[in-house]
Amino acid sequence: MATYAITVNERTINGKALMAYLKTLGVLTHKFSSKEKGSFLRSKEDKLAGRIEKFASSEEMFQSLGI
Fold it and tell me: What is the C-alpha end-to-end distance of the chain, expressed in Å?
């Protein structure tokens, strides 16, 4: 089984028809959108992945950045 990622403009008639057809076939598993995740969800993922640094003061932050 192959997996494909395609971009479809759902605002057009053809895009709506294609999405409806794929849904009726049952082959559409996920709908991805770049606007799907808000800043809160992205920051939550960053925190869980350990990509967040904590500083006691702004001076400490600037020192770590080399400013």
Answer: 51
